[in-house]
């Protein structure tokens, strides 16, 4: 499932979130304050646009695979969110997720791949939106959440929180997640630790919250004659 590594985590992780267990929220006033900022953003979240820089680090060879481009997110309605990512440097690649499907287009070779998310559609949305519109209840239900501490990302003051999946099957794929939350309550950086020292780090800049986004701007239009291959 190489198409999904374009995003954040292996697709197998997303499909195993259904069994996430529940737990009591931690009694940490500083953490509660950070999560309260997320809740405030969640109540008005309609979407965003931003620049994205993604690093996929492979520890065994100490190599970084770096891609940059733009991301567009739109909450069409409750539990129906569309995402489009256009990587432009160094490789061109467009990804759209919405309507229960994911489509990846590779302009250099003029090929596309489509995946039917089926019954796992809601789980994919939930994980992809980790930090984008999620509220504290969502996070605490699926993760053990702890305070990481203060940090600065591209000169912006942030607070880092650490999330460890509660479900053992999820934990087998993602050991922990880290979110850097700005003082305004927006997630400006995400890091997914996938084991063995490997991780995927996504940093967001020039964030524009709640813009007007046309539905057509979320869809990847394929050139005439290009028909996507199907993956299950």
Description:
The protein is α+β, with helices and mostly antiparallel strands. The protein has one domain: outer membrane lipoprotein receptor (LolB), chain A, CATH 2.50.20.10. It has five helices and twelve strands. The chain has helices at 11-15, 29-44, 121-128, 136-142, 168-171; strands at residues 47-58, 63-77, 80-89, 93-98, 101-106, 111-116, 143-153, 156-165, 176-182, 187-195, 198-209, 229-231. The protein has a twelve-stranded mixed β-sheet.
Task: Provide a quick synopsis of the model.
With 232 residues, this protein is of the alpha+beta class. The protein has 5 helices and 12 strands.
Defining key terms:
232 residues, alpha+beta, outer membrane lipoprotein receptor (LolB), chain A, 12-stranded mixed sheet, 5 helices, 17% helix, globular
- The fraction of residues in strands falls at over 45%
Q: Which structural category do the helix and sheet elements fall into?
A: alpha+beta
Order of helices and strands: HHEEEEEEHHEEHEEEE
Number of strands: 12
Q: Give the second-level CATH assignment, the architecture.
A: Clam
| Biggest sheet record | 12 strands, mixed
Mean pLDDT: 83
CATH class: Mainly Beta
What CATH calls the topology is outer membrane lipoprotein receptor (LolB), chain A
Distance between the termini: 9 Å
Form type: globular
Largest sheet, spatial ordering of strands: 7-8-9-10-11-1-2-3-4-5-6-12
Summarize the helices and strands and which ones pair or pack.
Elements: H1 11-15, H2 29-44, E1 47-58, E2 63-77, E3 80-89, E4 93-98, E5 101-106, E6 111-116, H3 121-128, H4 136-142, E7 143-153, E8 156-165, H5 168-171, E9 176-182, E10 187-195, E11 198-209, E12 229-231
Parallel strand pairs: 6-12
Antiparallel strand pairs: 1-2, 1-11, 2-3, 3-4, 4-5, 5-6, 7-8, 8-9, 9-10, 10-11
